[in-house]
Write a structure and sequence with these properties.
By secondary structure, the protein is α/β, with parallel strands linked by helices. It is built from eleven helices and 15 strands. The mean pLDDT is 97. Strand 7, helix 7 and strand 8 form a beta-alpha-beta unit. The strands form four sheets. It has a seven-stranded mixed beta sheet with strand order 4-10-9-8-7-5-6, with helices on both faces. It has a four-stranded antiparallel beta sheet with strand order 11-12-15-14. The structure holds pyridoxal-5'-phosphate (PLP).
Amino acid sequence: MISRADLEARDRADPLGHFRARFLLPDGVIYLDGNSLGTLPRTTAEVMARVVAEEWGDDLITSWNRHGWVDLPQTVGDLIAPLIGAEPSEVVACDSTSVNLFKLLAAALDLRPGRRVVVAEEHGFPTDLYMVQGLRQLVPSLELRLVETESLVDALGPEVAVLLVNHVDYRTSRIADMAGLTRAAHEAGALALFDLAHSAGAIEVDLAGADLAVGCGYKFLNGGPGAPAFLYVAKRHQHARQPLSGWFGHAEPFAFDATYRPADGIARFLSGTPGVLGLRALAEGVRLTAEAGPRRLHAKATALGDLFLDLVAARCPSLAPACPRTARGSQVSFRHLEAYAVMQALIARGIIGDVRQPDILRFGLAPLYNRFVDVFDAVEQLADILDTGAWDRPELKRREKVT
Ligand SMILES: *Cc1c(COP(=O)(O)O)cnc(C)c1O
């Protein structure tokens, strides 16, 4: 049986162990929700105070040029690129994941004229499916073909414009075979579009010839609540048109031309004015992540998850894993009929994870700041809550707006 002392030793030997001190983490909390909202890097708190007081406060509008505000979508995009196996000038940071997905779905239809089917996962992240449904208002002939993840390849055909896949599943943590799915999409003449919300910043991502991708800034990239998201368009597709043609995607925004003329390159995938404060915060989170490097992050994410599964198997035998043993992203999940109340009981003890409908307990494992002892302590409390039935209280079953 693994002891807490064994894990303390493992934390001391962890090559990423020193990164934890670079975050402002509250005392008495074991935070296992970095897959929903990442934590606050120390430099972010400092940089934001300076940006607000000096750049906004003192330098005002001159900051657009003087402090490079105008180029932030590209400069932050270039910082993200190596984390996902993209080249510089293939990524911009902007808007939300949902909005970026809308732009890229429309771009995919532009790149595949005559094809009108989007193949996606039935149990994929709902906002992705909602955005396809919204696009259908503008393109009534659009068909959303929903299938189980295992059947994605079988659903491809000559009418399919784009295959939309979650790289890591938000409930089961399964990692999709990005290279294989991309190859299959290309063989069918379709494009491959990946949602990297649960993979960028936590595990290795190699877009491996993929055409398009979107991802999230506030999860494993620690960009802060509602941080800008990012989008990737392979260089060979950057001539595509997207319909949210705002002035920041124009070839010459300050020519104030009445006619839209898209910029060359990735800039045409921008819409309106960049969210400067959000981008400056995101840059700090991305720099820390890049310093650790995807390979080391992935290795530790896997080790933390393996430990979590081993300890649960030993201490909470009634809890069925909802995640695979291998090819797993940086979270573990389990099924429990009273998942919500169990999680509330854990949160009351300072262990923060979350739940997803209908019965999934989710624990995000952020390799930058979670320790092996955190996993040990969390499973000890989980075992106690299950053994004693401490979750079975009415006040733990009252649902709040955000779960
Ligand atoms: C978190 C998440 C999003 C978030 O989209 P927003 O537009 O930022 O709210 C999208 N897709 C997936 C798979 C996610 O996990």
